[in-house]
């Protein structure tokens, strides 16, 4: 075994591809164990994800929240801050946006939507700021705090839709009344895709530009590579921790806004399907690069749509999606080894 | 009047705290060897399912209990392969294990949802259970609770007085020095991961074989993450882990009682309690932390030699 220079882009892609193929093979094996023909299963999965116009539109639709959450997660990961809380920040974003939508339903669209975005970003960013401040002041472990705050946020959302915000005409279903037309982000042309896709493009470019061109972005990268050296050079590490967590939470909150406004047109617990956790897989898969995050979001969103398809066609449990996600992440992590080391034959 | 309410409540606290105790002790062993395993939740749920299935088919909860431990070790061995052999990031690998474990357990367990398996039943320990107050709280449980009482003292002895335990701590504190002293750091870390996984699996089995005798989806409900937090609260000491686990047990027991009594407080707010408490406990322990008791090389991979 020998250390070597990092591989070229082509080499890294090869490693990534082998990791993906390996996790698909292992998933196929699991299908086989359950008595589902594995090749059929994988083919059905891909057809369901990318095999028709409807499937692709659905995959893009699901990629939107995953992309925004992942973009946020990636900003924090750049600083080696382990924000596992996208799921909760997403919930808070949806709650913030809903509060505005229900409080000022008659505002014109041009005022209401920006107000909802603002409320979502503030709520999500604020939720992300709590663990950041705890970490900055008391060195409290942010991994566990962000994770616990996910559980708290989801329960808070449930409290609202089962209680004070419950639609009196919903026949007991836990959901708020439907938003007014002004509070809904519309669809692009005749597709089922909403304008959230445009938000993703703009925010993706902004995040890319933040790291590429701004001083603060550079400082985040420098601190992430070596905290001690960066601190020694006088970089404001503690302030950066709060900043990245707020940005991270605001982006996840934005995703929550889109999910409530554009996808379900109200607040209901069914929007919490684990996009925030998938976002972590995506961020790592994409090595935190915004463009790659876009591609990886589309792939993993496709995986979710595809799993729905094999669930219907072959009665494979929905949890199969989690298995593939976990396997992809593990094989990619292990594959990272081959970009830094080379196996050599012979004695030590 | 108070006594008749409080004693059953505390007895229930010990019961709810036991799965968390097993998992916390498991994570302490793993972290002492220098490996951060955030996949506790995944290892627990895989253990819970394995225990349930084996007990259901063999009719023997004892076999199920051991199968759960082995399944837990199997689950954490994935973390070992990724981090010890392939130098993967320990934080992300642990998360991946959690995602994979939950997926696997729900995937393989779908057909068992709502079914039951033979489990463990409580029995009073002769003599000890007749001690007033303490007897009914601590000595009127199932065998798994009694086993969990024995583990912390054994672990303390292991860490402080055995050659192997000291070697394991060295692997977690200063792997380079341990290697220079001729210790096989990788082997100690493998032991930490596998032994820890065994205990996490047992914690899962407690949920499916003693706490309930049923299989449901998401049986662990975040207990694995609470265990990760409790390791910090416990300053990596098995004794304090007991305290922390029963503290959480009491909150969970109290929350169930309040729900059963039908309070005005909405159930979502009651269900938040353990998670809010976790954050609170973490904040308090970082506040009071004067000396750093964390294993110095926690989460740092050791490069393979060669």
Give structural notes.
The complex is a heterodimer of chains A (348) and B (306). Chain A has helices at residues 9-33, 38-50, 53-78, 86-103, 109-138, 142-162, 196-213, 215-225, 227-232, 237-264, 275-285, 290-314, 320-335, 337-340; strands spanning 2-3, 341-342. The model of chain A has no long low-confidence stretch (mean pLDDT 90). Chain A has a domain at 64-300. In chain A, helix 2 (38-50) crosses helix 3, helix 5 (109-138) runs antiparallel to helix 10 and helix 11 (275-285) crosses helix 12. Chain A has 348 residues and is an all-alpha fold. In chain A, 72% of the residues lie in helices and 1% in strands. Chain A is globular. Chain B has a single domain (2-121, 135-288), classed as ABC transporter involved in vitamin B12 uptake, BtuC, CATH 1.10.3470. Chain B contains 12 helices and 2 strands, in the order H-H-H-H-E-H-E-H-H-H-H-H-H-H. The mean pLDDT of chain B is 91. The chains are: A mainly alpha (348), B mainly alpha (306). Chains A and B meet through strand 1, helix 6, helix 11 and helix 13 of A and helix 3, helix 4, helix 10 and helix 12 of B.
Helix content of chain A: over 70%
Share of β-strand residues of chain B:
under 5%
Note the quaternary state here. Answer: heterodimer
Poorly predicted segments of chain A: none
Rg of chain A (CA only) = 21 Å
Number of strand segments of chain A: 2
- Write out the strand line-up for the largest beta sheet of chain A, numbering strands in chain order: 1-2
CATH class designation of chain B? Mainly Alpha
Keywords:
heterodimer; A: 348 residues; mainly alpha; two-stranded antiparallel sheet; 14 helices; 72% helix; B: 306 residues; ABC transporter involved in vitamin B12 uptake, BtuC; two-stranded antiparallel ribbon; 2 strands; 1% strand
In a few lines, what is going on in this structure?
Chain A has 348 residues and is mainly α.
């Amino acid at each position: 075994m020998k250390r070597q220079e990092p591989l070229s882009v082509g080499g890294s892609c090869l490693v990534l591809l082998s990791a993906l193929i390996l996790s698909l093979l292992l998933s196929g094996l699991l299908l086989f164990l359950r008595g589902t023909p594995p090749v059929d299963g994988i083919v059905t999965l891909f057809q369901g994800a990318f095999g028709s116009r409807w499937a692709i539109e659905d995959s893009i639709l699901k990629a939107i929240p995953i992309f925004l959450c992942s973009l946020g997660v990636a900003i924090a990961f750049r600083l080696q801050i382990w924000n596992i809380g996208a799921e909760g920040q997403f919930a808070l974003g949806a709650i913030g946006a809903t509060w505005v939508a229900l409080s000022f339903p008659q505002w014109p669209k041009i005022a209401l939507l920006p107000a909802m975005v603002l409320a979502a970003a503030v709520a999500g960013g604020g939720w992300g700021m709590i663990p950041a401040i705890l970490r900055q002041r008391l060195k409290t472990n942010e991994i566990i705090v962000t994770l616990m705050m996910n559980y708290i946020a989801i329960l808070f959302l449930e409290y609202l839709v089962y209680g004070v915000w419950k639609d009196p005409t919903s026949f007991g279903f836990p959901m708020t009344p439907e938003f007014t037309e002004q509070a809904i982000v519309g669809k692009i042309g005749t597709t089922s895709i909403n304008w959230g896709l445009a938000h993703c493009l703009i925010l993706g470019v902004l995040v890319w530009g933040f790291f590429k061109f701004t001083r603060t972005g550079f400082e985040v990268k420098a601190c992430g590579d070596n905290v001690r050296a960066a601190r020694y050079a006088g970089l404001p590490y503690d302030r950066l921790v709060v900043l990245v967590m707020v940005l991270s939470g605001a982006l996840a909150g934005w995703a929550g806004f889109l999910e409530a406004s554009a996808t379900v047109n109200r607040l209901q617990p069914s929007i919490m399907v684990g996009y925030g956790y998938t976002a972590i897989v995506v961020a790592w898969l994409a090595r935190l690069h915004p463009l790659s995050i876009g591609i990886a979001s589309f792939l993993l969103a496709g995986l979710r749509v595809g799993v729905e398809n094999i669930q219907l066609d072959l009665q494979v449990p929905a949890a199969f999606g989690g298995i593939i996600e976990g396997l992809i992440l593990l094989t990619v992590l292990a594959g990272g080894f081959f970009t830094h080391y080379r196996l050599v034959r012979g004695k030590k | 009047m108070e006594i008749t309410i409080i004693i059953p409540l505390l007895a229930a606290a010990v019961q709810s705290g036991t799965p968390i105790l097993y998992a916390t002790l498991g994570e302490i062993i793993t972290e002492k060897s220098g490996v951060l395993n955030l996949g506790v939740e995944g290892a627990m749920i895989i253990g819970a399912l394995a225990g349930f299935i084996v007990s259901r088919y063999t009719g023997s909860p004892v076999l199920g209990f051991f199968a759960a431990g082995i399944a837990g070790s199997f689950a954490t061995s994935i973390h070992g392969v990724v981090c010890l052999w392939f130098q993967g990031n320990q934080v992300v690998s642990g998360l991946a294990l959690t995602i994979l474990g939950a997926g696997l357990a729900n995937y393989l367990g779908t057909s068992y949802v709502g079914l039951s398996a033979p489990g463990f039943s409580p029995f009073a320990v002769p003599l000890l259970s007749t001690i007033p107050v303490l007897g009914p709280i601590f000595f009127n449980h199932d065998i798994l609770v009694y086993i969990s009482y024995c583990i912390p003292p054994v672990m303390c002895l292991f860490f402080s007085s055995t050659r192997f335990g000291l070697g394991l701590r060295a692997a977690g504190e200063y792997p380079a020095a341990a290697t220079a002293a001729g210790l096989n750091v990788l082997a100690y870390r493998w032991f930490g991961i596998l032994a820890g996984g065994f205990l996490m699996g047992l914690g899962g089995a407690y949920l499916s074989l003693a706490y309930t005798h049923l299989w449901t989806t998401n049986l662990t409900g975040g207990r694995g993450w609470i265990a990760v937090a409790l390791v910090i609260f416990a300053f990596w000491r098995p004794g304090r882990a007991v305290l922390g686990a029963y503290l959480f047990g009491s909150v969970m027991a109290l929350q169930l009682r309040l729900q059963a009594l039908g309070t005005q407080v909405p159930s979502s707010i009651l269900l938040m309690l353990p998670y809010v408490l976790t954050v609170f406990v973490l904040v308090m322990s970082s506040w009071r932390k004067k000396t750093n008791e964390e294993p110095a090389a926690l989460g740092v991979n050791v490069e393979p030699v060669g």
